[in-house]
C-alpha cells in the first residue's frame, strides 16, 4: 500500500514512519502476512497524489491467489480518521 503524507490545516504532519508503522499494524491485525506499506512525502500540490486505491493479493488455504482492489472515496487519511466519513468499494479481479 502506498499513501501520501498529510498535513493538517495548522501545519501539523505525523511522521511518515509513524504512519507506516500504524498502517502495518492495522493490516497485521486484519491477518495480512506479506505487507508493504510506504508513505510518500508530500511535495508540491496535495492533488498531485491520489491515495484512493488499495490492492491486496490473498492466498487461500488451497494455494489459489485472489486479487482484491479497494476504492476509498476519501483516501487513506479519511479511512484512518475515526471522525471522518468515507466509503470503501471492493472488487475482486480475476487473474
Report the end-to-end length measured between terminal Cα atoms. Answer: 19 Å
Quote the average pLDDT: 79
Distinct helical segment count: 2
How is the largest sheet built, in terms of strand order? 3-4-5
Shape: globular
The helix-and-strand class reads alpha+beta
Give the total of beta strands. Answer: 5
Number of domains: 1
Largest sheet: 3 strands, antiparallel
Radius of gyration: 15 Å
What percent of the residues sit in helical stretches (DSSP H or I)?
10-25%
The portion of residues forming beta strands comes to 25-35%
Order of helices and strands: EHEEEHE
What low-confidence regions span 5 or more consecutive residues with pLDDT below 50? none
Structure description:
The structure is a single chain. By secondary structure, the protein is α+β, with helices and mostly antiparallel strands. The chain has one domain. Helix content is 21%, strand content 28%. It is built from 2 helices and 5 strands; from the N terminus they run E-H-E-E-E-H-E. The strands form 2 sheets. A 3-stranded antiparallel sheet has the order 3-4-5. A hairpin with a 5-residue loop joins strand 3 and strand 4 (65-72). The radius of gyration is 15 Å and the shape is globular. The mean pLDDT is 79.
Helix and strand topology:
Blueprint (H helix, E strand, L loop, with lengths): L1 E3 L11 H14 L8 E3 L12 E7 L5 E8 L2 H6 L7 E6 L2
Parallel strand pairs: 1-2
Antiparallel strand pairs: 3-4, 4-5
Amino acid at each position: 500500500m502506498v499513501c501520501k503524507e498529510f498535513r493538517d490545516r495548522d501545519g501539523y504532519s505525523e511522521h511518515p514512519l509513524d504512519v507506516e508503522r500504524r498502517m502495518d499494524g492495522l493490516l497485521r491485525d486484519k491477518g495480512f502476512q506479506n505487507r508493504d506499506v510506504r508513505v510518500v512525502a508530500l511535495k508540491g500540490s496535495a492533488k498531485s497524489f491520489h491515495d484512493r486505491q488499495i490492492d491486496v493479493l490473498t492466498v487461500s488455504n488451497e494455494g489459489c491467489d485472489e486479487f482484491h482492489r479497494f476504492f476509498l472515496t476519501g483516501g487513506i487519511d479519511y479511512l484512518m480518521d475515526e471522525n471522518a466519513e468515507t466509503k470503501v468499494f471492493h472488487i475482486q479481479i480475476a487473474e
